[in-house]
């Protein structure tokens, strides 16, 4: 039976209790407050559900990750980075990025970014925990990505493109900033061929959890008892390397 989380404070089952089918489903219930979300991500758990479901928590095995030094930048992307007329910003249009990521794509009219999820991640952004990387071209927002930054780890959530390779441009800038300024790992959650083509790999869930235990130790966090208070998380100084608009690649 799937555990139902009803405690006023986040307390998740151990990730080895997650189901194998559907892969990684761990628990249901709980909240999308900052404290719950921070506790989930640092334990290798993330929410994913549709409007008709309760909050569902996942920790798939294997886990897709991207080590910044393993990002595959093909010559065509290098050319686009240098000559595509892109400008990169950090945290200037978070709400627009998450709205673009939530928009239906192709024949798929649904989205897993529910209104409740949207509101929760915008609050994390206000608290300095969730961040967006925006790609501009010709004065227009044409791509980007968003996720959570905790210490040397970036937990990627979603990305979008309105111009060729625009999401790859955002990821390239993220990978470079982390590679050059102490970042260690980009969590990609689930395997996709697109991310694999960019250098992401799958690792056992136990390996992923060991990475988090090493780089995000318990003593680096302070989780408040009140839902209104902001969690204290380890700083991510590599973010400042993305924050200069128009920095050439």
From TrEMBL:
SUPFAM superfamilies: Acyl-CoA N-acyltransferases (Nat). GO terms for cellular component: cytoplasm. Gene3D superfamilies: Leucyl/phenylalanyl-tRNA-protein transferase, C-terminal domain (3.40.630.70), Leucyl/phenylalanyl-tRNA-protein transferase, N-terminal domain (3.30.70.3550). Keywords: Acyltransferase, Cytoplasm, Transferase. It is found in: Cytoplasm. GO terms for molecular function: leucyl-tRNA--protein transferase activity. GO terms for biological process: protein catabolic process. NCBIfam families: aat. This is Leucyl/phenylalanyl-tRNA--protein transferase.
């Amino acid at each position: 039976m799937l555990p139902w989380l009803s405690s006023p404070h986040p307390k998740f089952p151990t990730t080895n209790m997650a189901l194998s089918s559907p892969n990684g489903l761990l628990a249901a219930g709980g909240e999308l407050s900052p404290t719950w979300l921070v506790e989930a991500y640092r334990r290798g758990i993330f929410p994913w559900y549709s409007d008709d479901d309760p909050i569902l928590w996942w920790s798939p095995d294997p886990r897709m990750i991207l080590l910044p030094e393993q990002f595959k930048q093909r010559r065509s992307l290098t050319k686009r980075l240098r000559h595509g007329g892109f400008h990169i910003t950090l945290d200037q249009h978070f709400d627009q990025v998450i709205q673009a990521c939530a928009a239906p794509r192709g024949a798929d009219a649904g989205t897993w970014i529910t209104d409740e999820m949207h509101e929760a991640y915008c609050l994390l952004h206000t608290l300095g925990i969730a961040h967006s990387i925006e790609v501009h071209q010709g004065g227009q927002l044409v791509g980007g990505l968003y996720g959570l930054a905790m210490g040397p780890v970036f937990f990627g959530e979603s990305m979008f493109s309105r111009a060729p390779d625009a999401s790859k441009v955002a990821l390239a800038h993220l990978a470079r900033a982390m590679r050059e300024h102490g970042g260690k790992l980009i969590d990609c959650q689930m395997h996709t061929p697109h991310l694999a083509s960019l250098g992401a790999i799958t690792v056992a869930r136990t390996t992923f959890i060991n990475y988090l235990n090493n780089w995000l130790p318990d003593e680096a966090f302070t989780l408040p008892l009140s839902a209104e208070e902001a969690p204290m998380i380890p700083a991510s100084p590599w973010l400042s390397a993305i924050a200069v608009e128009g920095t050439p690649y």
